[in-house]
Records
---
Amino acid sequence: MGFPKQFEDRVTNDDFLGQQLLIALDEQAPVSIRINPKKMSEPTSFKRKIDWCANGYYLNVRPSFIADPLFHAGSYYPQEAGSMVIDKILRLLELPEEPVILDLCAAPGGKSTLIATFLNNSGLLVSNEVINSRAKILRENLVKWGALNTIVTNNDPDDFGKLKHFFDVLVVDAPCSGEGMFRKDPKSRDEWSEENIHLCSLRQKRILGDAWDALKPGGFLIYSTCTFNENENEENVRFIAELGAEQIDLNLPEPITKGREGIGSYFIPGRTDAEGFFVALLQKHEGSSSKQKLDQKKEFKPLKDTSIVKDLVFPDGINFYQWNEKVFVFPAQTCDRILHVISKMHILKAGVMIGEIQRKGITPSEELALSTDLVNWQNRIELTQEQALKYLHGDTFALEAKPGLHLVTFEKQPLGWIKHLGNRFNNLYPKDWRIRMNLDKLSY
Ligand code: SAM
């Protein structure tokens, strides 16, 4: 598939990008994943590690992720290698002990799962997506990643004005014209136009301006896109600087390329083993941080009857909350801030909703099944790959077990719940998450 004519002309005449880029964009894209160190120690086979991310690996071949139950268990996340540089950048920052990070344009969750691993259950990640259907996918990916200290919101960037000076880090991985995806996703070539670049650039400025107040004075903003043009990249970094921030030189090693006029950094296919990616780091000017009173949503109350959770084993340092019949676990350290976000935003996930109170006790949720630090369920059934795929497809099949609730696992990683009735079981895997493909079509 060819390139849009105006794109080809622009790249050909742009010394910064060079014609080499056009050749590279027609070559094969490298395949990479980032592992979840709480669920996996290393991929079974890989080509080499990625220099700029502690948990990133290039693979030799593109496997069928759908056919791998460990992918559904949240043991790893397929992610373009350049985007993983957020890990290196976060490690450069001087942050408070319990940092609060907002990932503003977060679906499907590549950067958010990376940030959750970086935080390692300290601090708090608020992961936001404005488009509802995409926010549900974001929730699914974060539930599967299993971290306790994450909230998923479904808000417009403008709503974050209600959380003034709340965040230590703001990550804006902006919707963009996607020139850097021309290789991985050739369809994106059809959607490209000069006019769209202009619209994207305006939208990005609006997003940045809307969320600006949510960042604390002295806090950090990581701005990124997967495109190569100046209007969506360097121009927007200048725009952020005008809002009141200083660019911080990332000094990323060659072959990562400094942006035009030294603004930001680029991953350019052909030079780096990655898709096209632009990233810049800025620090908001110091100033007086207006401390907001932390509100609480009235409907969320500390769990009164803790005997209800006595059969579940939990680590120290957590608080139980209740909203109607739902029981939540929040890390004690950031509990007040979680309750504040809940009081202001449209929430799809907060901490871990461990289950619902019913007459006979608590019915555990899929969030509990997949949480890395909480689930400690005795009744487990290890499935073969074939059984696991059937389970993830929503099927039932012959499986011997005592009647009751069981956690089903693959290579010891929890996938979800079944309720065994003695002669058959009910598959409790969430309907929205099920593999929709015909299993006969999957090769594994
Ligand atoms: N950070 C994500 C990741 O690593 O998986 C990818 C984010 S993608 C580049 C940009 C996201 O911005 C999309 O999910 C898109 O739905 C969202 N978006 C689109 N319009 C938006 C707007 N006006 N304000 C905020 N986000 C928007």
Note: The longest helix spans residues 194-211.
---
Amino acid sequence: MTMRRYSAFSLLRNALSHNRNWGRAWRSPEPKKSYDAIVVGGGGHGLATAYYLAKNHGIRNVAVLEKGWIGGGNTGRNTTIVRSNYLWTEAALLYEKSMQLWEGLSQDLNYNVMFSQRGVYNLGHSLQDMRDIERRVGANRLNGIDAEVVGSGELRKAIPGLNLSPDARYPILGASLQRRAGVARHDAVAWGFARAADALGVDIVEQCQITGIDIRDGKAVGVQTTRGSITSDRIGVVVAGHAGVLARMADLRLPIESHPLQAFVSEPIRPVLDTVVMSGAVHGYISQSDKGELVIGAGIDAYNGYGQRGSFPVIEHALQAIIELFPAFSRVRMLRLWGGIVDVCPDACPIVSKTPVEGLYFNCGWGTGGFKATPGSGWAFAHTMARDEPHELNAPFSLERFATGALIDEHGAAAVAH
Ligand code: FAD
Ligand code: PYC
């Protein structure tokens, strides 16, 4: 009873004081002159890297240097789909490690990241689509990852409103389903990792852009920033769409192209869709947020660029796709749209790797699908930075694969966004 009165009083006090009494969730420190490790980029992957450096490897004198505000890049711009149903063993195991971390993340961070395992359906519209689905589901199961093939009868029961007419332009024959897949709250992921990393001593420095990487005798020795120079002999770069720009500062060339990727939300409506539906054939995907908005996306804009917006033809194409899948949604009004800059590798797989510069590490190339990898990517990259060697989970994702030809082609699993 006392507790309830206290909570009600506290709520009222905070409402009347416009939250002025709230403490900060993480500090806002001045950058130090030197750190044991620097992580460039305060997206989910950078913050997760710093957290696992501190938690798993005891490296706590760490700075995350972010040019804007944390989570303001792709982390705060994505459509939050989390799944691990990739085809090739190398990718499947890395994304599955991430899935397992997602499953305990709210408890681990003591912060509700709202991970909702509502299932993800990848639709099949032709006999060949269904054969590809069967192959991928089979491969997933061999890797111990939950996956099922479902027919149109089951889709009818599970997804009200889905257009299962045989007269559709691309009739729906079935789908793959990963039941453990779903969505999470993107901002909460950044904030949860930030708060937990800060509590372990990590300095999170916002409004601090890296403008140069200092290299002496082939070794990384520090960075130039808009808030002065900072030394460190261990520097991890995790800047997604800007990976090529940062690589150039170290005289490296990455096999990365930066493209805009757009997404949209509708006005909030009552709960109508309790799962995630993706279609690589009509090129669209959709889920419903907890606020009731329909969250919609499509493929990348084909040109390269750094403007965080996209072009009109892609918007039109995406909405055509969604209306084809769910004709009733033609009556829903769209609320807003935005874009992010994604970093795409030729094999649609990431780079989590040492570089030819000693002490300089790159984590990039997650392209259109890195949100789902946030905890796993940070976990593996922290291992790589702490030990100066990759973990077996990210060893296949080194830069060398572009010289040896050992590419891991996951265009099929990336599907809808490519
Ligand atoms: P970011 O969050 O972009 O963080 C990089 C940070 O580096 C940024 O905050 C940036 O400001 C900072 N930075 C850049 N340059 C500098 C510099 N010079 N100095 C300091 N800091 C710098 N993935 C999924 O798995 N599921 C999805 O449903 C999904 N949907 C998507 C939808 C859209 C519209 C977009 C754009 C992406 C989507 N993705 C999805 C991909 C996913 O968002 C990214 O792969 C992932 O968020 C990358 O995380 P990050 O932490 O590496 O990058
Ligand atoms: O990787 O699942 C994904 C995805 C969906 C939309 C963009 N990326």
Note: The longest helix spans residues 89-109.
